[in-house]
Amino acid sequence: MTNAERKKRILELVSRNRSVQITDLTELFDVSVMTIRRDLAELEEKKYIKRVYGGAVLNEEELNKPYFPRAAINSITKGLIARRAVEFIHDGDTIFLDLGTTVLSVSRYLEGKSRLSVITCSIPVVNELEKYDDITVYSLGGELKRENHAFLGAGTEAEVEKYCADIAFIGVAGISFDFGLTNFYHQTASLCNKLMRHSKKVILLADSSKFGKAKPAVVGKLSDIDIIITDDGIPGAYLEAFQHMNVEVVMVEKPE
Fold first, then answer.
1. Domains and CATH numbers, the chain
2. SS3 label, residue 74
């Protein structure tokens, strides 16, 4: 196991359990205490975790940002990305819309589309789509997570098993070479991965501020997506990497 793989696994454990112990990690990975301490120090430096006596805990600072204030961040760019995303939707399509704030913008630009079936766990998305008479909306059940304004958990993921979508529109909180596609919470990451696996095409919507960042919960690999719609602030290294992976990159012009 490489250093990057070990740190990725540590992040997954912290995301699931909210904390980890150094002694448990040394046994799990069969490495020294010093090695684990270095790993934790690097993860803390990037603000993924906070070290505490004997281990580490999840960095809750970013996780506690309310949903709608997060939706307002880079809202103009998110709107431009959403408009481009709608161009990939054809009349009669079945699509997944996840609970990300950029994906929420897609639901606001569907006027003129007909015979769509939209499957979502997001309450704000459902509220937006209520006004469209020619869109059939399927709401994924599960446990209501008020902080996410969405239904999440095992029940929600079980509902996904009933569908096969033409396109899954997903959003993530971080995109990095070390950890791939990541989100704030394990439940949101797990659901997002499930949507990807039940779709013929996966389109990632992410403004350039997400690049070079990683959050605690892993969604999947960069190569798991078919198309990414972003802005022209995307770092060149990621643009080149996506081209090598045969991932189509669609860019909008970032507002001044």
1. 3-58 (1.10.10), 67-252 (3.40.50.1360)
2. coil
Angle at 224 between CA 96 and CA 161, to 5 degrees: 40
CB 82 within 8 A of CB 108: yes
86 half-sphere exposure, CB direction, 13 A CA radius: 18
Angle at 37 between CA 31 and CA 38, to 5 degrees: 90
Residues 1, 25 contacting (CB under 8 angstroms): no
∠ CA 94-95-97, rounded to 5°: 155
Across the chain, which distance is largest between two alpha carbons, in Å? Answer: 61
H helices of the chain, in order, are 3-17, 22-29, 33-45, 67-72, 75-86, 101-106, 123-129, 154-160, 186-197, 236-244
Q: Residues 118, 86: contact at Cβ < 8 Å?
A: no
Q: Which two tokens stand for residue 1?
A: 């196991």
| Distance between CA atoms of residues 189 and 215, nearest Å | 10
- Residues 201-213 have pLDDT tens digits of 999 999 998 999 8
Six-digit token string for 177:
């070479």
| Rounded average pLDDT over 123-151 | 91
Query: What are 22-42's pLDDT values in tens digits?
Result: 999 999 999 999 999 999 998
Helix intervals (H) in 87-153:
101-106, 123-129
